[in-house]
C-alpha cells in the first residue's frame, strides 16, 4: 500500500507504475468538502490518478461512479460523476469499466443521519426489489474484482446497478 498526497499526486507517479489493473473508488461528499472540494476529489483527483495509472502501464481501469451520472446534469453530484467518466474514458485504457451503483449500503464510522435513514428504508425495499435502488458495498467490490478477472474486450463497459448485482453474486 502506498500513501500519497493527492494535492501533489504528480510527485507519486512511482506508486502508479507496473499495475495491469487500476481500481478507483475515490470520493467525498459536498457536505464534508464543500462544492469545490467535492469537484477536486471526485473529478480532478480521479482523472489525475487515471492518467498516472495509464502512464505507468495500467491496461484496465475500473471506476466506481454513480447511478445517474451525466456530464450535462443540473445536479452537481451527477454532473461531476459524468464528467469524470468522460475524462477517464479519454485517457485511452485498453479496457475501461465504469460501475454505476445506486445507493451504497454500508456501515460508516462517521455519522450521516439522513444517509442512515435512507439506508434503513432502502435496505427494507431491497428485500422486495433487490436490484432497484441500492447495493451493498461488498457486492460492488466483488463485481469490480470480477471485472478485473474477465478477459479484456478492448472497450468501455458501463455496468448499471442490476449488472453490478449479477456480477457481485459470482
From TrEMBL:
<dbReference type="GO" id="GO:0051170">
    <property type="term" value="P:import into nucleus"/>
</dbReference>
<dbReference type="InterPro" id="IPR016040">
    <property type="entry name" value="NAD(P)-bd_dom"/>
</dbReference>
<dbReference type="GO" id="GO:0003824">
    <property type="term" value="F:catalytic activity"/>
</dbReference>
<comment type="subunit">
    <text>Monomer. Forms homodimers during oxidative stress. Interacts (via N-terminus) with elongation factor EEF1A1 (via middle-region); the interaction is direct and competes with EEF1A1 binding to guanyl-nucleotide exchange factor EEF1B2, thereby inhibiting GDP for GTP exchange and reactivation of EEF1A1. Interacts with nuclear transport receptors XPO4, IPO5/RANBP5, IPO7, IPO9 and KPNB1 as well as GCN1L1/GCN1 and LRPPRC probably through their HEAT repeats. Binds NCOA5/CIA.</text>
</comment>
<dbReference type="InterPro" id="IPR036291">
    <property type="entry name" value="NAD(P)-bd_dom_sf"/>
</dbReference>
<feature type="domain" description="NAD(P)-binding">
    <location>
        <begin position="4"/>
        <end position="150"/>
    </location>
</feature>
<dbReference type="GO" id="GO:0005737">
    <property type="term" value="C:cytoplasm"/>
</dbReference>
<protein>
    <recommendedName>
        <fullName>Protein HTATIP2</fullName>
    </recommendedName>
</protein>
<dbReference type="Pfam" id="PF13460">
    <property type="entry name" value="NAD_binding_10"/>
</dbReference>
Amino acid at each position: 500500500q502506498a500513501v500519497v498526497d493527492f494535492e501533489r499526486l504528480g510527485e507519486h507517479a512511482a506508486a502508479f507504475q507496473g499495475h495491469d489493473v487500476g481500481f478507483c473508488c475515490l470520493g467525498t461528499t459536498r457536505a464534508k468538502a464543500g462544492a469545490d472540494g467535492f469537484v477536486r476529489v471526485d473529478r480532478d483527483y480521479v482523472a489525475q490518478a487515471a492518467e498516472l495509472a495509464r502512464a505507468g502501464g495500467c491496461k484496465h481501469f475500473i471506476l466506481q461512479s454513480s447511478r445517474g451520472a451525466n456530464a450535462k446534469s443540473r445536479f452537481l453530484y451527477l454532473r461531476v460523476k459524468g464528467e469524470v467518466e468522460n475524462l477517464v474514458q479519454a485517457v485511452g485504457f485498453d479496457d475501461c469499466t465504469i460501475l454505476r451503483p445506486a445507493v451504497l449500503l454500508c456501515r460508516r464510522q462517521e455519522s450521516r443521519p439522513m444517509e442512515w435513514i435512507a439506508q434503513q428504508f432502502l435496505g427494507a425495499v431491497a428485500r422486495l426489489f433487490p436490484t432497484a435502488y441500492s447495493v451493498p458495498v461488498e457486492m460492488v467490490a466483488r463485481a469490480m474484482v470480477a471485472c478485473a478477472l474477465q478477459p479484456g474486450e478492448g472497450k468501455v463497459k458501463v455496468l448499471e446497478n442490476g449488472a453490478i448485482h449479477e456480477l457481485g453474486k459470482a
